[in-house]
Amino acid sequence: MKFSSKNLLEKIFGLVFHFFILSYYTQSTLAIEDGIDTQQIESFDSFSSTEAPTETSVVLTTATPAPSSPCFHADAEYCTNPTLFEQNEKDVQPYCRCRSYPNTTNTFVCCNITDILQVTSCYKGNWTNIHMRNVTMRTFNISLSILKPATSLAITDGNIKYLSSEFYRHAKLKCLNVSNNNLTHIDQRALVNLNNFQMLDISFNNLSKIPNLSQHRNLVVDIKGNKRILCHSLLESIDRGSITFVEPETTHCLLNTTYNWFNSTETMPIGQLERAKILNDECPKPENRKCKCDPEQMFFEGEGINPEQHLVFNARVDCSSLGLTKLPEKLPPNTIFLNVSNNNITSLENKFHSLDYKNLLRFDADNNQISSMYELEGTPFIETFQKFFLRWNSIDNIPDYLLSNALDHNPKGRVLYLGGNKLKCDCNSANILKLWLLERHNNIPDYNHILCNNMPQKVIELTDKELCQSSHDWTDYIYYLIASEVILLLALIFKVSYDYWKFKTSGYLPWPASKMPKLPCDWLCES
Fold first, then answer.
1. What is the DSSP letter of 506?
2. Which residues, listed in sequence order, are joined to residue 316 by a DSSP beta bridge?
3. pLDDT digit string (tens) for 470-508?
4. Under a CB-based contact definition with an 8 Å cutoff, are residues 84 and 77 in contact?
5. Is residue 468 assigned to a domain?
6. What pairs with residue 415 in β-bridges?
């Protein structure tokens, strides 16, 4: 049989084609048996350079997430293995540090970024999934135009202090992962423009608060590993009931970083913040003004097999600088600190006799117009308080007998501040109150700042010489009156004695006794 050159070429190409198909099928079968998807081999083939892969080449598993997850996360080996990263360098700018990720559409991985130009110089078309590894920049601006079409953005395993600015309005981002970057601050408005946001991972950073998430619903947030995160910054999100935290029972937040006036629990699981939400719901709203309530200490109430069912908070209520004219009617259960400073409150009324005030240990009422402390008599607060602030009020009299009983009963650690009040000073203030303040200077640290309202002096500077010599009145002459009466009595006794002697010796009474009318008792003298 004769073959033309054309037929011969067709036969050769046919044999090569069948050999290629057979080789591909065998390679795919072996890969499936070893647990590797066929797509991984295709991605490897397409990612390889013209040279045959060496023995150090590694088959990279596809990082495309499950269909239910909006997040893309590339393998760490992509950046740590130079061979993998440098295999696809066609049509890449010299300054570019980003490469397309195998077997995924519009997906790019950027490695070892120190300048944002190393990312922007690579941009062509739409980048749907982006993962930047080992970014070392003090500030990362998220308002880049190349991020607008992205649905998944990961910036991980780097060293970034501040995530600044905000995403473009109507950006398509669904997932943001900025974990493990030593972040200390994220702009509060960074995420406000994201309408389709579903997942935020800010784990393993140094954040103290989370960005504003008020407009998001059904959002999953991972904050674990942030040892400085404040519970207060999470409460607003929990109040809306629209955010789910990852591992809430093992992820902790700080109750407070500054207020530690007695030993308290410093951290708590964020799963328990739901109880703090109840505290916020019960926060007082006096005169249509909202106070601020925070958990101060967590403890187990009662006894039982499962004490976690009785976990409750001690509450700290701040109603300062609200222009209030009276104390709040109700307080959350277990309120131990109430701050009503810088208001216009004129009286303590009988609030401290109510059950809402029975657990108070600290009461701050500086800079008000409170005029009396007598309402505290017989209250639990006066017996148990730890710190009591009444500076710069209108107190004109200190009930030392009331405070003596309270301070003498348990003086250690109890502090009362009364500086700036102007008392009505008198002799009693100089002789008694002054000494009383000096004796209790440990309990009244600002005793040297208590003033008088009727003289330009401090109570501690009063002397009895200037206050205990009062103005003259009729009581000053009582001694003269008594002396005069004694003298008159002695003169009368002398006169009567003389008249009696004269009568006995001469037989007649001297004048004027002789001129006096006789009395019924005169017969006694004539006998």
1. H
2. 294, 337
3. 555 566 678 888 989 999 999 889 888 888 887 788 877
4. yes
5. yes
6. 387
Average pLDDT over residues 355-384: 94
Q: Residue 123 and residue 154: Cα distance in Å, rounded?
A: 16
Helix or strand holding residue 9 (H, E) = helix 5-33
Give the β-pairing of 175-177 and 199-201: parallel
Looking at 424, 445, 472, the residue that finishes a domain is: 472
Which one, of 262, 264, 266, 297, lies nearest residue 413 by Cα? 262
Q: How confident is the model at residue 70 (pLDDT cuts 50, 70, 90)?
A: confident
Q: With a cut of 50, say whether residue 259 has pLDDT above it.
A: no
Under 8 Å between Cβ of 389 and 396: no
| Distance of alpha carbon 306 from alpha carbon 435, whole angstroms | 54
Nearest to 182 by CA among 214, 127, 132, 139: 139
In a domain, 490, yes or no: no
Is 452 part of a structural domain of the chain?
Answer: yes
The parent domain of residue 131 ranges over: 63-229
Domain boundary, last residue among 178, 213, 229: 229
pTM of whole model > 0.70? no
Summarize pLDDT for 421-438 with one digit per residue, the tens. Answer: 999 998 888 888 999 999
What is the number of structural domains in the chain?
3
Asked if residue 182 and residue 40 are part of one domain, the reply reads no
Q: How many residues does the chain have?
A: 527
CA 191 remoteness from chain centre: 23
Alpha carbon 86 to its chain centroid, in Å, reads: 50
Place of tokens 């400085």: 228
SS3 sequence of 260-285:
CCCCCCCEEEHHHHHHHHHHHHCCCC
The answer to whether residues 158 and 29 belong to one domain is: no
**Alpha-carbon distance 420 to 366, whole Å?**
10
The pLDDT value recorded for residue 521 is 62
